[in-house]
Amino acid sequence: MGFIQGIIIGVAVAMDAFAVSLSIGLNRSVRIYNKIIFCFSFSFFQFIFALLGGISGFLFNKYVVCIPSIVGGVIVSIVGIMMIKEGMEKKEGGFLLQKGMYLILGISVSIDALVVGFTALNSIANLYLLIYIAITIGVITFLFCGLAYVLARSLKKVEFICKYADYIGGFVLIVFGIKMIIL
């Protein structure tokens, strides 16, 4: 596996974090500080899960292929439902700002990186190359999350989107979670 394949894998697994970051960015109560922590959380877990998956993939490849997608999809869908509920209640400082959400969402959007590690990165014999590809995945995820927040800032200027941001973000997460479960 080379650098280009590592970038392609990084872009592919960063899409989950991008979608979740876009939804988070549309939330009115989330500040720049929170967004930075989410970026670091998502990119760290993408890196660490890709690395762990690559190292231990040959042991678990037959047993864990479909389960992580289901677990991640359920978690992301639950967060989407919670966002819609928060939008209905119209209270400030919602659940996304609770410290545990950085960990929960970081892990849930990174489960696919673990699967990629199990299936695609487990054949890399050179540990340094594996670490390099895992770092590449983490950096790409960080950049994609930042891009999602910039895009969300622009989308919030549209009155309709700003008014219904919690509902839109929640709906996107629910659909994305269902997609993770089904596919």
TrEMBL record:
The chain crosses the membrane at residues 6-24, 36-56, 62-81, 102-121, 127-152, 164-182. It comes from the Bacteria. Pfam families: Mntp (PF02659). Keywords: Cell membrane, Membrane, Transmembrane, Transmembrane helix. This is Putative Mn2+ efflux pump MntP.
